[in-house]
Design brief:
about 190 residues; eight-stranded parallel beta sheet; 6 helices; globular
């Protein structure tokens, strides 16, 4: 079974996490480069950015405004702990601002920051942290009904529960760990 959405957000921690040969459809993917550990060299990132542009894949940099501007990225991703308001000035330059939230308080803060899309985290139960709460489909759909922004489900999305995304009230979704674990399988199910 295939999952058809307007946009797919792929969160990567290294430029080696993604293989462009798996991506066949252009204009539907947004790559969020979120490297918390060792940052790649600028020339490698610039090459990766050019490759994204040639494949019509939007490239977003997480929490590093100067790197996003230097790479001429399509936007910036503000994680839940980022409370800065500087990216508000970049909306005038067609710079997309994307945020993430885990609860109502963070969701309201991301709305104030002017985020176009807000990744609402932990749709499903994750196996790497057993005791963490998750929203579930009903609660996510309630959030998306009361929010005026586009909410994107994130967290716990894998091959086994991909079909459940058809009942989620969102035109897109975000995946992170499945991109590294089983990229060919996940990409084949998205078209």
């Amino acid at each position: 079974m295939f999952i058809f959405k307007k946009k797919y957000f792929l969160i990567i921690e290294s430029i080696k996490d993604i293989d462009f040969r798996n991506i066949k459809i252009r204009g539907k993917f947004i790559v969020i480069y979120r490297n918390l550990k060792k940052q790649e060299e600028f020339p490698e990132l610039a090459r990766f950015r050019r490759k994204c542009k040639s494949k019509k894949i939007k490239f977003i940099v997480a929490n590093n405004l100067s790197l996003a501007v230097n790479l001429k990225a399509d936007g910036i991703y503000l994680s839940a702990y980022n409370k800065d308001y500087k990216p508000l000035n970049l909306k005038k330059k067609n710079f997309e601002v994307i945020g993430s939230a885990h609860n109502t308080k963070e969701l309201n803060h991301k709305i104030k920051q002017g985020c176009k899309y807000i990744l609402l985290s932990r749709l499903f139960k994750v196996n790497y942290k057993e005791n963490l709460n998750f929203l579930g489909i009903c609660k996510f759909n309630n959030y998306s009904l009361i929010s005026k922004k586009k909410l994107v489900p994130l967290g716990g999305i894998n091959i086994s529960n991909l079909n459940k995304l058809k009942t989620v009230n969102s035109e897109c979704f975000a995946i992170m760990t499945e991109v590294k674990k089983k990229p060919a399988k996940i990409f084949s199910r998205l078209f």
